[in-house]
Each structure stands twice: as C-alpha cells, then as structure tokens.
Design a protein that fits this description.
Keywords: Aminotransferase, Coiled coil, DNA-binding, Transcription, Transcription regulation, Transferase. This is PLP-dependent aminotransferase family protein. This protein is α/β, with parallel strands linked by helices and 473 residues long. The chain folds into 3 domains: 87 residues, Arc Repressor Mutant, subunit A; 116 residues, Alpha-Beta Complex (Aspartate Aminotransferase, domain 1); 208 residues, Aspartate Aminotransferase, domain 2. It contains 18 helices and 18 strands. The strands form 5 sheets. Strands 6-13-12-11-10-7-8-9 form an 8-stranded mixed beta sheet, with helices on both faces. A 4-stranded antiparallel beta sheet has the order 14-15-18-17, with no helix packed on it. The chain has a two-stranded antiparallel ribbon with strand order 1-2. A hairpin with a 2-residue loop joins strand 4 and strand 5.
C-alpha cells in the first residue's frame, strides 16, 4: 500500500489520485476512514508535500474525500451515507478508467442485449413464468367509460380489489380511501419523499439495499444511511445510534425476502423496530413487494403489527413483470390525500389501461391457482439451484431460499476487488455484485428464477470455472 508505479507516463499527483480511488473502490479504504497526514504521505511517496496537497485537493473537488477541522482528511460518506457516490467529473470520466462500478454496469448493459449471455441480473421473472390471463377486447369507447371510474386515488374497481386482497392476505384492515394506486413502487417512494421529507433530511435503510442504486434520493437531496443486516434483519442497535447522531427522519425497510439478500426479518426484530420507531416518533416505510412469492409461512407484516406507524408499499410487478407497473401505498387518509395532491402537482398521470388490465387479472377465477402454480414452480427452481450450489459450499456461503426472486452468495476466501467480478462478464454470466448495493465486494445477487433445466448446467459449469479462477488470484 502507498507505493506508486513510477513507470506510468502520467503526472505523479494523478497517480496518487488513481491509487486512492482504487483503495476506496476495492474496500481498502472505507467511508469515514482517516488518511495519513499530508507530510506522512509525502514522505511515503517520496514526493514534495505540494504534490500530495494537489492530489488531495482534486479528490476533495471530486467528492471522494473531505477535510474536517480537527479530524484530518477522511474518505467521504457524502449524501449517500456509508456507500457514498462521489460527484463525478465528466471530463475525467471520459478520459480515465477509475470508475470500476460504472465500467461494470456499462459492460453489463451491453451484454444484456446479447442472446448468448445468461441474464441472472434482471430483477424480475422471465417471460415464460409470468401467469397469462385472457383479456377482453377493449373498444376505445369502453376505456373512456372506465376512465370515469378513476378518482385522484386511482381506478376504483382496482382499489377495491387491492383492499380485499390486503385484508385477506395480510390481515390489514383498510378502506379504499387509505389506498393510493401508483405506477409501481418507485413512484410510490418518489411521492413519499416529496411529501414527507425535505432536502438534506436523512433516511435509514438496510445495508446492503437495492435502494442505493436508485437516483430518486440524490435528486431529492435525501441522505441515505445504511444499517447492517444480521440473520434477523436490520440491526436495531445500530439504527438507534444513527437516529441519535444523524437525525433520521424515516426508516425504509424491505423486510420480506429483502433485495438483494433474500432475508426475511424475524418477528422479534419487527417488534423491536416498531418499538424504536414509537420511541423516537419516526415513520417506517415497509416495501413489501415479494411476500406473495413465499414458500414458507411469513411473520405478520409491519403494517399489521403497527397500523398507525407504518406506511405499506405493495406491487404487482413481481408477478406480472415490469410491463404492468401497478403499485400502491397504504397509509392514513390524510397522508393519502396529500400524496394524491402531490402527484397531481407534478403532473404524474396514471393511465387507466394498465389498471383495467390488472383488475381483469385479479378478478380471474383462476388467479389464485395460477399464483400458487407460480410459487410451486419457483420453489422447485430454488431447490434445484441449491442442490447444485451445495457442491460449491466450500467456497460460497448461502442461505436457503424461502421465497422471492433472489439468492445471495458470499465468497469465503480472500478478499475480492471490484475488478474480479468482471470474470463473470467475461463468461457472459450477468449477475449483480454486492458493490451495486453497498461497499461490500464479497457477495453477489443471483435471480435464480431465470435458470431452467436447460441452462442450469451451463451456469454451474461456468460458475465452477470462475470459482477456480478466483481461488488462484
């Protein structure tokens, strides 16, 4: 560490910048870590102090590090909390190759277009598993008539159907004026940020979490702080420390088949989380989009345990795919009205057509059976996947899949860097490394539902080859 390659034909201060960025990206330097003093760095690098100062000034300007009076120079935690995404200098980005995360995503997006690649990255069901329903033929006049059944809260027949399902499936007693239909769960989150938070406010989320990759928080000026997960879910002790030090205004969790880890928060941890939210009067937003894909009995939802403290988000997209973007927010009437007004103010129109399609599917007499058939198919796919994965258990740690779409695997051997994950791209295996969701470089998320009997053997053959290569590094 702290040694330069003097054969590089670039200025020394840029070499220092490149090395520090590499250390941050591969986890050798973590958010909040203190760098050695400028004089010490100059002695270590055998350069003038002014060269070190120049490099550090550039890194401060780019957002990679910060200087704090009395604390020295620290790796930036930034607006994104533990997984800070520094501001990007686009001129340098076009010229240099520092940003391994962005480079990985660019290559991944290119390979997603290739029919030769095996896509285990995309976060939805493959088309052949999405239940099919016979839809009636619609005339334009019919849709215009259905449009008249739409209120500011959504298409009334769909609202009623969702209310019925919530009462039956999740034991949550709600009325139609406590449910707002949205164009998917992301729009629901956007509206909540606009109505409940202000620029500069802090939100606690799980670490790792798919939320780190969403731009809506940075756009709204919201600071995200990650709370470590253990086998029971979000660690409440760490969360309380964040509440005290970072003035947390909202707790946002995905407690059932969490994305990316696939874990389900225990009942005891759910109760502890609710108690903490009551203690500090902080609302909980429960992102619950995977619970209908369960292989096992689930603990009560947070909304069922604490109807007044919890805002509940649901979605049909995990069953019907992203082409049918239907989600909903369950909250008290006053908040629902404010959210509906906010949507009107930003001119988010909600098309009646996908709502009519969703209503037709939910009213299908075979819907419940088709959903159960889907769950049975996924359960068998999960067991087939785990059977093969056990052959690699000396190198990869994993937990049994109990529902949802994802398996989360952690490398047991020496530390990996972000560059190592390009081995998967080289083999045309498209997976989601943990650094897309946190600072971790040792784990990956796999959408196991996209593996069938034909490509399962292909995947594990390549996975074994990659495992062997990683062990040799």
């Amino acid at each position: 560490m702290w040694q330069l390659n003097n054969q590089k034909n670039i200025p020394v201060y840029q070499q220092i910048m490149e090395q520090l960025i590499e250390y941050i990206q591969n986890g050798q330097l973590l958010p909040g870590d203190r760098l050695p003093p400028e004089r010490k760095l100059a002695e270590t690098y055998h350069v003038n102090r002014s060269t070190v100062v120049h490099a550090l000034d550039e890194l401060v300007a780019l957002g990679w590090i910060v200087r704090k009076r009395g604390s020295g120079t620290l790796v930036n935690e930034g607006n994104w909390g533990r997984t800070a995404n520094p501001r990007i200098d686009w001129r340098r980005r076009l010229a240099d190759n520092h940003f391994q995360q962005e480079a990985y995503l660019v290559k991944l997006q290119q390979q997603l277009k290739s029919v030769q690649s095996l896509d285990l990255y995309t976060g939805e069901l493959p088309l052949n598993l999405i239940p099919s329903f016979r839809l009636p033929s619609f005339k334009w006049e019919t849709l215009l008539l259905e449009e008249q059944k739409q209120s500011p809260l959504g298409y009334l027949p769909l609202q009623e159907l969702i209310v019925q399902r919530i009462k039956k499936e999740q034991k949550i007693d709600v009325s139609s004026n406590e449910v707002l239909i949205t164009s998917g769960a992301k729009q629901a989150m956007f509206l909540l940020l606009q109505v409940m938070l202000q620029n500069g406010d802090s939100v606690a989320i799980e670490d790792p979490s798919f939320l780190y990759s969403l731009p809506i928080f940075a756009t709204a000026g919201i600071r995200l702080y990650g709370v470590e997960l253990d086998s029971q879910g979000m660690r409440v002790d760490q969360l309380e420390q964040l509440i005290l030090t970072k003035k947390i205004k909202m707790i946002l969790v995905n407690p059932t088949f969490q994305n990316p880890t696939g874990r389900t928060m225990s009942l005891q941890r759910r109760k502890e989380l609710i108690d903490l939210s009551r203690k500090y009067q902080i609302p909980i937003v429960e992102d619950d989009v995977f619970s209908e894909l369960a292989f096992v009995d689930l603990p009560p939802s947070l909304k069922e345990l604490a109807p007044d403290e919890v805002i509940h988000l649901g979605s049909l997209s995990k069953i019907f795919g992203s082409s049918l973007k239907i989600g909903w927010i369950v909250a008290n009437r006053d908040l629902i009205v404010r959210l509906a007004e906010a949507r009107q103010m930003v001119d988010f129109s909600l098309s009646v057509f996908p709502q009519v399609v969703a209503s037709t599917a939910l009213k299908d007499p075979y819907f419940n059976q088709k959903q159960q058939n889907l769950v049975d198919t996924l359960k068998q796919s999960a067991r087939d996947f785990e059977k093969e994965l056990k052959l690699l258990s000396n190198d990869w740690q994993f937990e049994p899949i109990e529902g949802g779409l994802y398996a989360y695997l952690t490398w047991k051997n020496k530390k990996l860097t972000r560059k190592d994950w390009e081995l998967f791209l080289d083999e045309q295996l498209l997976v989601a490394p943990a650094f897309l969701f946190s600072n971790d470089t040792m784990s990956l998320r796999i959408n196991y539902t996209r593996l069938n009997q034909e490509n399962l053997a292909v995947f594990f053959n390549k996975f074994q080859q990659i495992t062997d290569q990683l062990k040799q590094k």
